[in-house]
Amino acid sequence: MIDFLFNALVAGLALALVAGPLGSFVVWRRMAYFGDTLSHAALLGVALGLALNIAPMLAVTVGCVLIAVILVTLQRRQPLASDTLLGILAHSTLSLGLVVLSFMRDVRVDLMSYLFGDLLAVSSTDLAWIVGGSVLVLVMLALLWRPLLAMTVHEELARVEGLPVAAIRLTLMLLIAVVIAVAMKIVGVLLITSLLIIPAAAAQRHARTPEQMALGASVIGMIAVCAGLALSWYQDTPAGPSIVVSAGAIFLLSFALPRRA
């Protein structure tokens, strides 16, 4: 009993810690739809992992990274608007994943756990993937914080100053892909983006600097994880949705507090 609660808490806190600063860039650069696309593609990674007898977490990570690269390539070569491409890929990959799963009649798949998370069933292996992926993303964000900020504030000026804007943008997309892959076990493919966006949006209202917003988003995310786990434990509600509901409640509460000048 204590082990699975400990695993769930550590996994949730690790994800919330890294989702704060990364989610801030998602909000600043209006990449929520991109995150949704990758989260939908995660189910296809699960299906292919089961079909090829590969660890689902590894398959999802590789799948999300490949989808991110495909998106960047298509955005450069196709005249279609970005939101159109994202819509096509999001629904196509989700549907393809469901179709592939339907053919695997000999494999029992708990589809609900992949769609909405199964935080209370995080194993030691899952925990290692989640903590390792979170640490990797956090280190990369720390190394690229200034270039990412410069690109976000004014992309053309960053390019003039000699920053490799295209490479930085692709790296940011890959980091989002890794976080979505490791977050699948916690909140599921349909709710992943909310854990990136909601804490960052709640922190934005009261932050004066980008660093304050990133730190505030991490703190709000960790509070939401603790509150969601408590709600799940005492009221027997699903853990992933409970965390998202808690984050949404904190977002609404942020409007009741006076905004910092």
UniProtKB/TrEMBL annotation:
Pfam families: ABC-3. Its main location: membrane. GO terms for cellular component: ATP-binding cassette (ABC) transporter complex. It comes from the Bacteria. Keywords: Cell inner membrane, Cell membrane, Ion transport, Membrane, Transmembrane, Transmembrane helix, Transport, Zinc, Zinc transport. It is found in: Cell inner membrane; Cell membrane. The chain crosses the membrane at residues 40-73, 85-104, 127-145, 157-180, 186-203, 215-234, 240-257. The keyword Lipoprotein does not apply. It is a multi-pass membrane protein. The keyword Hydrolase does not apply. GO terms for biological process: response to zinc ion; transmembrane transport; zinc ion transport. Involved in the high-affinity zinc uptake transport system. Belongs to the ABC-3 integral membrane protein family. This is High-affinity zinc uptake system membrane protein ZnuB. The gene is znuB.
